[in-house]
Amino acid sequence: MALTGIQIFKLLPKTNCKECGVPTCLAFAMNLASGKAELDACPYVSDEARAQLAEASAPPIRPVSIGKGVRKTKAGGETVMYRHEKTFFNPTLFAGIITSDTPEADVDAKVAAWNALQYERVGLNLRPELVALKDVNGDKVAFATLAKNISEKSEFNLILMSEDADVISAAVETAGFKRPLIYAATDATVDAFGKIALDNNLPLAVKADSIDGIAALTDKLVGMGVKDLVIDTGSRDLKQALEDQVALRRAALKDLNRSLGFPTITFPGEMTSNGDMEALIAAMFVAKYGGIVVLSDLSTEVIFPLLLERLNIFTDPQRPMTVTEGIFEIGTPDENSPVLVTTNFALTYFIVSGEIEASKVSAYLLIKDSEGLSVLTAWAAGKFGGDDVGMFVKKSGIMDKVKHNELIIPGYAAAIAGDVEEELPGWTITVGPREAAHLPGFLKARV
Ligand code: SF4
Questions:
Q1: Tens of pLDDT along 256-305?
Q2: Which domains are delineated in the chain?
Q3: CB of 241 closer than 6 angstroms to any ligand 1 atom
Q4: Could you identify the atom of ligand 1 that is nearest to the CA of residue 16?
Q5: Which residues neighbour 136 within 8 Å (Cβ) at sequence distance 6 or greater?
């Protein structure tokens, strides 16, 4: 259960030594309670107090690590019901199902096709993370061989799906090195599945047909020492499945019910036979608390919009996405190439750089830190003023790269042209187009 600032203060040394960077232990306690400080910043917390504080500050929904390598990821770790309250932390993971009776060559082709489903947006690589290998015939040798191949030949991590503990064991032997998620322990298999998870330190999903049944399973597994758990409430009815997701999140966050404080796994493909409807249900689970969404197949038309939805929902609403301040080379610019300047709002950067790229005119794009605001907003907020922009251009190092003295500023920032000119004597300040879409024509006309 989360502690208040006063409760945390009682556990601190109360010497006000300031080594944590704030004047008093009380101020540090308040920062700790609101998530603005890390406990490690105070070197004098006793071991006993540290243990109490660590337990109290554990996220109400346990973050569960799944996989190894470049697509290693986490589910859970959420602390709020609604994104605007703070932020959602660990994006919903996407998996595609491959059944164990699929010929090896077809599996290779499918995994290669799924691996190509990667999209660059705002400097991030958006892609699905998991392959859900589903046992359909109890053939443990075939299942283990496919698990091994997928693990060794691809970046994907695995969900191992079987009702048979022997089948799971065989696959853990060949693919356990990739830290797969085991799916799923039920009332009938909890002992056997729990032992496999415990012995191999692997995350384990649990499945029951009621919330009470889930709590009984998680309590038992935690008692056995298996802590990395994922919940499937078993419902394949849309309304009930949504209600389950909300009930679990509420129970973990509001009632601080540790038995239900785990990420969830959902199967939209088991709720409908219509592919479009499956995608819509998947979108619902991205918005409403699905930790992992397992799709019957992965295709561009389904996964791309889901990845974009995920990007939007799991972006911190209090922090605009930014790019680093500096000089960005578009194409192969030389000393005669045009120099443009804009703000460090990620969307602005990617739209402007994309349009410059489309123009086929190599250029230098100067990105000034404007705390993630777009041009007009940054100008209105005093973060893209003429003096600042001029100073930034001077310090950027661009003068060592070009032999001309012309700077192109965004059309929306025309008002700063005079001030930039004053700050950069001898430079010509050219006002560019207002809309980035007009940049290609503007740049080509100058060549
Ligand atoms: Fe108090 Fe620890 Fe901060 Fe010192 S470092 S002021 S003891 S909280």
A1: 899 999 999 999 999 999 999 999 999 999 999 999 999 999 999 999 99
A2: 5-57 (1.10.15.40), 64-313 (3.20.20.20), 326-444 (3.40.50.11600)
A3: no
A4: 6
A5: 99, 100, 101
Contacts of 310 (CB under 8 A, 6+ apart): 91, 92, 94, 126, 286
DSSP H or E segment with residue 310: helix 300-313
Residue closest by Cα to atom 8 of ligand 1: 25
Look at the block and give the residue holding tokens 């100073």: 391
Q: pLDDT digit string (tens) for 180-219? A: 999 999 999 999 999 999 999 999 999 999 999 999 999 9
Protein residue whose Cα sits closest to atom 1 of ligand 1: 25
Alpha-carbon distance 146 to 154, whole Å?
Answer: 12
Choose one of 6, 9, 17, 38 to mutate for the ligand 1 pocket test, by most ligand atoms within 8 angstroms of C-beta. 17
| CB distance 53 to ligand 1 below 6 Å | no
Q: How far is CA 394 from the centre of its chain?
A: 36
Rounded mean pLDDT, 151-166 = 97
Asked if 397 contacts 327 with a C-beta cutoff of 8 angstroms, the reply is: yes
CA distance 203 to 360: 49
pTM of the model as a whole: 0.80
pLDDT (0 to 100) of residue 60? 87
CA–CA distance, 262 with 260 (Å, rounded to integer): 6
Q: Comparing C-alpha atoms, which of 399, 408, 316 is closest to residue 355?
A: 408
User: Of 8, 10, 11, 15, which is best to mutate to test ligand 1, by the most ligand atoms within 8 angstroms of its C-beta?
Assistant: 15
Tokens of 46: 């006793």
